[in-house]
Specification:
By secondary structure, this protein is an alpha+beta fold. Helix content is 32%, strand content 31%.
Length: 182
């Protein structure tokens, strides 16, 4: 039932962190604890499959997004891994060219990171992929680079909407936008 819905959904779909895990599960994957918590700014590398995906065209081959997760997803059949890191093999995927999942956070800004740190101090246990709070805050150059990559992805999804009859929903600064292809 879930798989049928995702296959027939008439719009571009992007899931971030828990959203990516839910999408992966909806299309037949499994969500499970990752070997490591991944909290902070850590490098991600694109796979060869990402270079073939219109959604990831224009991404740098290696970039440093923000992470805040303990769980990960197993890739379902027909989903393509598009990014991985040392701390988490499945960082991103595409499915059927209109569904994308990102385990990392391109949308995060300094205020959001500050709120997460303030509200989750007890969750910051030591680990190889858990940065100290002072290493996470104030990284404006990484926030800026992440936003550029996010907008590249959203632009690619919007282009696909205009090439097909898909609808796109995207969130920007707390507002929801709906774009319909011509």
């Amino acid at each position: 039932m879930k798989l049928h819905f995702i296959q027939r959904v008439p719009f571009e779909t992007l899931g971030i962190c828990l959203g990516a895990q839910l999408l992966a599960e909806a299309i037949g994957g499994k969500v499970r604890p990752n070997c490591y918590r991944e909290i902070g700014w850590f490098p991600v590398e694109l796979t060869e499959a990402a270079k073939q995906s219109p959604a990831f065209r224009g991404f740098p081959e290696r970039f440093v997004p923000f992470h805040w997760h303990r769980d990960t997803f197993e890739l379902p059949d027909r989903a393509m891994r598009t990014a991985s890191s040392k701390g988490c093999r499945n960082q991103a995927f595409v499915y059927e060219d209109h569904v994308a999942g990102l385990q990392f956070h391109l949308e995060m800004d300094g205020a959001g990171i500050g709120r997460m740190l303030k509200n989750s101090k007890d969750g910051l246990v030591q680990g190889p992929y858990v940065q100290k709070p002072e290493g996470m805050a104030g990284r404006t150059e990484l926030v800026s680079a992440s936003k550029t990559i996010l907008y590249t992805l959203l632009d690619a999804m919007e282009r696909r909407c205009s090439e097909t009859e898909h609808t796109m929903f995207a969130s920007g600064k707390g507002q929801i936008y709906r774009t319909i292809g011509d």
